[in-house]
Amino acid sequence: MAVYTDVPPDELAKFVGGYDIGEPVSCHGIAEGVENSNFLLRTTRADFILTLYERRVNPDELPWFLGLMQYLAQRGLSCPRPVADRAGVTLGTLAGRPAAITTFLQGAWPRRIEVPHCEAVGAAMARLHRDGEGYTAQRRNSMGPAAWSSLLDSCRATGDQVQSGLIAEIDDALAFIGPSWPGQGARPVLPRGQIHGDLFPDNVFFIDGHLSGLIDFYFACTDWFAYDLAISLNAWCFDETVTFRPDRARAMVRGYESVRPLDAAERAALPVLATGAAVRFLLTRLYDWLNTPPDALVTPKNPLDYLGRLRFFRTCAAPLEWL
Ligand SMILES: Nc1ncnc2c1ncn2[C@@H]1O[C@H](COP(=O)(O)OP(=O)(O)OP(=O)(O)O)[C@@H](O)[C@H]1O
Ligand SMILES: N[C@@H](CCO)C(=O)O
Predict the structure, then answer these.
(1) Which atom of ligand 1 is least distant from the CA of 219?
(2) Which helix (H) or strand (E) holds 305?
């Protein structure tokens, strides 16, 4: 369960009193997620999400994330909208943590992924890329290639306990990715802008098979659009046995291109971008696996699911034959 910080009732009442959203009726910790503490806050007027920012979020960057969500929501993208307090401020402090209240999004994430989900996610991602264009403030990808070596170093001593040879395999992948990444040497740069950066199934809500919205923008950043697609190809297009599902991947790319066609350089870069995305989530999962105490109220995700993805994408020739 991802509730790292308890909120005393008197502090909650004082905090909510700063907003014009009614009186708090209940506030329950939400079991899902691994990054932040999330609560379903029910007031006399409506349901909201209360988030206390924990681990990987740099508090100085919170105004950028909240501003992006506000901007995208104003352009019609269905995503949580930060709620301003009576002074017009969307970011506060609660129980010693940075905290914000956002609107509650109806729907549920798909427990069983079907091909049409993938097409809908592709289209929604492309709309996010298009609609984010007027949000000009940039945020460097703090989980991009520049961060991977030090993450790997922090796992180096104990990583092979998870699987023998794992660290050497990641070292080898990084040596391949480094010079092959867009913008390196003669490699072309790609179209870039605001990306979600973590568009996994548990961050996309559906109602009756229709996509109802996107949540969790706290890894959003300014990066190659095609890298966002590469992240979601990893997250959505493998089954439970970590077998690649080309039907899902084709549907995702089709959905994406119904809004924003990929150019030739983006298509050619997809294998290395997908390899990099596999390394990124393998590393963060590995770090969490090695550093989460057994009695913690959060269940770390299995890093080896991403080793399977990494191996798959490393064997793909460019351009991907299934596109
Ligand atoms: N705006 C929202 N509307 C409705 N439910 C929400 C909203 N935001 C979060 N939730 C609920 O809280 C859960 C966890 O939220 P979120 O994914 O943002 O947490 P996280 O700790 O950042 O997780 P992750 O591991 O995906 O990074 C979601 O799966 C969803 O059930
Ligand atoms: N979506 C990530 C967790 C949040 O960073 C994962 O599944 O590894």
Answers:
(1) 27
(2) helix 304-314
